[in-house]
Amino acid sequence: MNETLVNSQKHRITLAGTAQSFECDNDDVLLRSALRNNIAFPYECNAGACGNCKFELIQGGVEVKWPEAPGWTAKDRERRRYLGCQSMPRGDCTIKMHSNQRYAPIHEPKRVTGTLTSRRPVTHDIGEFRFELSDGMRFEPGQYALLALPGVSGQRAYSMSNIVQGSDAKVLDFQVRRVPNGEGSHALFDKLAAGEQIEIDGPYGMAYLRRDVKRDILCLAGGSGLAPMISIARGVAADREMQGVNVHFLYGGRTPRDVCGRDMLEALENFGKRFHFNAAVSDARGDQWDGHTGYVHELAESMFGDGLRDMEIYFAGPPAMGQAIQKMLLGREVSFEQVHFDQFY
Ligand SMILES: Cc1cc2nc3c(=O)[nH]c(=O)nc-3n(C[C@H](O)[C@H](O)[C@H](O)COP(=O)(O)OP(=O)(O)OC[C@H]3O[C@@H](n4cnc5c(N)ncnc54)[C@H](O)[C@@H]3O)c2cc1C
Ligand code: FES
What we know:
Blueprint: H1 3-7, E1 10-15, E2 21-25, H2 30-36, E3 54-59, E4 62-64, H3 74-78, E5 81-83, E6 87-89, E7 93-96, E8 110-121, E9 126-137, E10 144-148, E11 156-159, E12 169-177, H4 183-191, E13 197-204, E14 216-222, H5 226-238, E15 247-253, H6 262-266, E16 275-281, E17 292-293, H7 296-304, E18 311-316, H8 319-331, E19 339-340
Parallel strand pairs: 1-7, 14-15, 14-18, 15-16, 16-17, 18-19
Antiparallel strand pairs: 1-2, 3-5, 3-7, 4-6, 8-9, 8-13, 9-12, 10-11, 10-13
Helix pairs in contact: 7-8
The protein binds flavin-adenine dinucleotide and FE2/S2 (inorganic) cluster.
């Protein structure tokens, strides 16, 4: 059978103990196919790392895209547990998973073609990449998409920094940090040329702007976490219903030359009145720096203290930053109902 025919094959996935089932393409994974069919399949990273998308295979067979995925353990294999984000069906299947309405997609994720149209440097190691889409995409500020990059095994998750204007977005902007020896970021920075096309699959992610909450917002971004926080600030600025909401944007970098985002905030109407930018660096040695020296969670705590309990909090960045923020918020007894993040892996 030729490859096109095999890839267009569909398999029926039945959820054990429920009346629900859905069709999954031969080349799609169970998690994303379920979400495309409006089934609330729990997940977070979509990258094989967090382990939140596990299911038990009761009947049928799957092909695992990335057997070395850190979220898939030896014990999982013994118990026929698989990662939804890494499993492609090989025939009809029956699976057991605990659906949770929190994960019901707001916008149906879809696969589109993206053409790289421009790139610009943001800092010495962060670049912004713009893709024009073959088909419009709806998403909420703070969400991410999966990019299939040439010569890279698996897809990489990158958050959009722009917002949807009109009914859907015709372009997506990503702000990506160059990771030393990183396959995906290297492909974006050094291999993909303007005019080249890739597959983009999205939107995904739960750390999106809650438009119905009218509390002031705190955005904490570190390193590669710039894009989703910029998208959230832009989303608030563009939403008439959120005019009473102030946004405090805090960026954490290692050294002063890592600090970025101020110009993007300054471009928003009411910068300095409703939109505020502050930065912290952990290592200011030898550089001119008149901002906060230390970590971004320390800056947030010193600026807002117990006032954090009255804010809606979004954060994105490296895992160590995320852990430090969560610990600080726990110490301040901030309810996790008002804290939103998708861990970066
Ligand atoms: C929800 C989310 C949003 C993110 N948003 C951004 C962003 O806006 N900007 C940014 O710079 N970074 C972002 N990242 C991080 C980004 O996805 C990459 O992890 C990072 O760019 C390093 O990738 P790399 O390929 O360069 O490095 P590598 O070290 O080559 O790859 C590391 C990443 O790729 C995954 N991976 C490795 N091999 C495979 C494989 N065979 N199949 C599938 N996955 C594999 C790993 O789980 C890990 O996530 C985000 C990550 C997540 C989870
Ligand atoms: S391991 Fe599948 S969503 Fe994180």
